[in-house]
Amino acid sequence: MSNLADKIRNSEDLHSELYSIPEWGVTIMVKSMSARQRAIYASTLTSEGATDVDAIASVALSRIESLWGSMIVACCFDPETGKRVFSEEDLEWLMDEKSGEVVGDLATKCLEVSGLSSDSADDSGKDSSDSQTAEEEHDQNVVSISD
Length: 147
What we know:
Strands 1-2-3 form a three-stranded antiparallel beta sheet. The chain contains seven helices and three strands; from the N terminus they run αββααβαααα. The protein is mainly alpha-helical.
């Protein structure tokens, strides 16, 4: 391995953030996913084999639990011990017994810390607000005819 590869390997580029969940009375350390975890997550987002809108929606809905669960298991750690908070076995009760809003917010936080949400792109300086949005481009192409 080259000196540069050693330097890259030894650098700390994974991010973490404390996340308070008042409804549960806990604070969780949310850590970003590794490159492999992100790749696995991204590969689950496609709807291969689905050909119509209903089939695509069905595939998407069936994946939400799996996506949230894998995200939460991969990213949530006890800030005191550094150990994972949840295991695969915990997902059944987490999804059946806990608030969808709270679990969804936690999954969203995991996405943000892992750089997979629009908020995280803005936070990391990757905001593309200087470029035109489709709506702005549409507005420029619309000719107003008023009396």
